[in-house]
Amino acid sequence: MQPRNMSMSGVVDLAAVKAAGEARQKAEQARAEAVRQGGAPVAGRLVFDVDEAGFEAEVLQRSAEVPVVIDFWADWCEPCKQLGPLLERLADEYAGRFVLAKVDVEANQLLFQQFGVQSIPAVFAVVAGQALPLFQGAAPEAQIRQVLEQLIAVAEQRFGIVGAPVAPGEPGEYDEAAVPQVPAGPHDAALSAAHDALDAGDLGGAVRAYENVLSDDPANAEAKLGLAQAQLLKRVQGMDAQAVRKAAADAPGDVAAQIAAADLDLVGGHVEDAFGRLIDTVRRTAGEDRDAARVRLLEVFEVIGPDDPRVTAARTALSRALF
């Protein structure tokens, strides 16, 4: 069974666009229920506190409509007192292009652990159910703005998530009617069929469907991502994970064993481990073996997406290993 979008470990999203649509429907239902019960829907707030009980509805489901930035903080943390107000001000300034969820780590240790936070303040984002690390510590405002711009661009380009602008005269609330409507693209039906095949476990069918889209539209980013993900799942299908990991541990110089183990790392959500394994293999090999590891690493970059900060860091590490 492939990882689903609404998972904390879903850093490798194997049907992201389709699952984001499903999450959007759940978010609509959650808001309707909140209104029915007389509460304020989360969509109407740019900055809000969140706890473990409300995390799925308020962050994971909401992330199908707008990038959700998460600020992990605590009362005793002095840098948090500098960063928190800055993030809140930027959330107001960006007017609905992202929302800010604040997590008190003292009261929400489970979330703290699930995100693998090492120290605070720590800032993550969730887009279409995928958790992404942004930065740690009280960074300069210019750097934070740059990170937020990259996050917003990735959300729009990869998932069509654009948030919702604040209605004039109504600070802190969304004008949902003002959300841009994206017209259907020429390959939407084919992409939907490919996503359905992926969800059904028909990996061969998914690969063919994505390849058909790319034959007509070689630059289609969604099809490129889907094809890379389907090919990854097809490679690990039927693998004996224990045997693969033992072979990799016993033979660090065996390129095929390291590549297979990296695929398992990736499917398991251990992105940095997969990158590190392949970069180490490039570093210790030469000739065709080195080229095989390098090519697989480039393929893995496609699975994660070129704008992911982990890919950027790994590309730098790869350059060092090669030169």
Short descriptors:
9% strand, alpha/beta, 323 residues, disordered N terminus, five-stranded mixed sheet, 13 helices
Describe the structure.
The protein has 13 helices and five strands. By secondary structure, the protein is an alpha/beta fold. A five-stranded mixed β-sheet has the order 1-3-2-4-5. The radius of gyration is 21 Å and the shape is globular. The protein starts with 15 loop residues before the first helix and ends with a helix.
The Cα radius of gyration reads 21 Å
**Global morphology:** globular
How far apart the termini lie comes to 40 Å
The DSSP helix count reads: 13
What summary fits the major beta sheet?
A: 5 strands, mixed
Q: Mean pLDDT, rounded to whole units?
A: 78
- Order of helical and strand elements: HEHEHEHEEHHHHHHHHH
Number of strands: 5
Helix share bin: 55-70%
Helix-strand category = alpha/beta
Strand order of the largest sheet: 1-3-2-4-5
* Proportion of residues in β-strands: 5-15%
Uncertain residue ranges: 1-25, 39-43, 167-184
Quick overview:
With 323 residues, the chain is α/β, with parallel strands linked by helices. Helix content is 56%, strand content 9%.
What is the topological layout?
Blueprint: H1 16-36, E1 47-49, H2 55-60, E2 68-73, H3 78-94, E3 99-104, H4 109-114, E4 122-127, E5 130-136, H5 141-159, H6 188-199, H7 203-216, H8 221-236, H9 241-250, H10 255-267, H11 271-284, H12 287-304, H13 309-322
Parallel strand pairs: 1-3, 2-3
Antiparallel strand pairs: 2-4, 4-5
